[in-house]
């Protein structure tokens, strides 16, 4: 059961990796124009080389989606190194989705080469803690902001220029109670992650379904599909960890 869930996690991480590579390849010319450290783009053809590297990342992700065993046999580590290369050299990665994706790729990438069961359990345990911590910190940070507790922040985000969408924005702006309900639903899903893991497998399945709906909604409204695939890969690893017990 755990192996099957890890295959699913590897496929999901592959889709996230492919989307990351494609987005970087498309955005690199623009990134070069505002690059904080322009020395990386002073040599002729540097942008083209980084775009080729981004496309290689995308192809690697597609391979994981089709052949998850390649990710588990070491490909995940290679994909993680490529993500870190973009983060360090270009400052073009490193948001929540990229961090979660890199966190998932590390244990997946070395899974086949680890023969000791206790090491595998330890890796999954560390990953489970990381996933739960990511949700918990996000939820606690939102709870500390009055605009989130009132729902106003959700309405403003959905109405923003770059990540907004007109159709769901107007009812959130028009009806503060609806915005407050949406905001508290998001915060509740995030802060109860550790509790769901501790209570039991069935409760965790329900929570994971709610988290998946949350990410699907974010992907649809804010056009952030990488977040959905990266965090869903983390959810699959979380379910695999809970399946050990």
Q: Span from first to last CA?
A: 12 Å
Main pleated sheet: none
Give the SSE order as H and E letters.
HHHHHHHHHHHH
Number of H- or I-type helical stretches: 12
Tell the overall outline: flat
- Which structural class fits the helix and strand makeup? mainly alpha
Fraction in helix? over 70%
Kindly estimate the percentage of residues that lie in beta strands according to DSSP: under 5%
- Number of E-type strands: 0
The radius of gyration is 19 Å
Quaternary status: single chain
Give unreliable regions as ranges.
Answer: none
Q: Roughly what is the average pLDDT, rounded to an integer?
A: 86
What does this structure look like?
- The protein is mostly helical and 245 residues long.
- The chain is flat, with a radius of gyration of 19 Å.
- The protein starts with a helix and ends with a helix.
Q: What is the strand and helix layout of this fold?
A:
Layout: H1 2-34, H2 46-66, H3 68-90, H4 96-109, H5 117-143, H6 146-150, H7 152-158, H8 166-174, H9 176-191, H10 193-199, H11 201-222, H12 225-242
Helix pairs in contact: 1-2, 1-3, 1-4, 1-12, 2-3, 3-4, 4-5, 4-12, 5-9, 5-12, 7-8, 7-9, 8-9, 10-11, 11-12
């Amino acid at each position: 059961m755990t192996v099957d869930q890890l295959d699913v996690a590897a496929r999901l991480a592959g889709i996230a990796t492919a989307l990351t590579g494609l987005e970087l390849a498309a955005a690199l010319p623009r990134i070069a124009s505002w690059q904080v450290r322009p020395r990386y783009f002073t040599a002729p053809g540097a942008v083209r080389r980084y775009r080729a590297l981004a496309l290689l990342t995308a192809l690697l992700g597609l391979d994981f989606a089709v052949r998850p065993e390649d990710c588990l046999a070491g490909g995940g580590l290679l994909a993680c190194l490529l993500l870190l290369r973009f983060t360090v050299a270009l400052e073009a990665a490193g948001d929540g989705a990229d961090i979660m994706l890199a966190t998932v790729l590390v244990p997946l990438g070395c899974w086949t080469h680890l023969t000791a069961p206790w090491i595998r359990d330890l890796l999954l345990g560390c990953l489970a803690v990381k996933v739960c911590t990511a949700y918990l910190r996000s939820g606690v940070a939102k709870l500390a902001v009055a605009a989130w507790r009132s729902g106003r922040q959700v309405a403003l985000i959905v109405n923003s220029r770059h990540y907004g969408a007109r159709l769901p924005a107007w009812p959130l702006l028009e009806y503060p109670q609806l915005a407050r309900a949406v905001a508290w639903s998001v915060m509740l899903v995030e802060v109860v992650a550790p509790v769901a893991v501790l209570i039991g497998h069935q409760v965790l399945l329900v929570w994971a379904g709610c988290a998946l709906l949350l990410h699907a909604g974010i992907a649809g409204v804010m056009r952030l599909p990488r977040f959905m695939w990266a965090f869903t890969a983390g959810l699959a690893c979380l379910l695999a960890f809970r399946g050990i017990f």
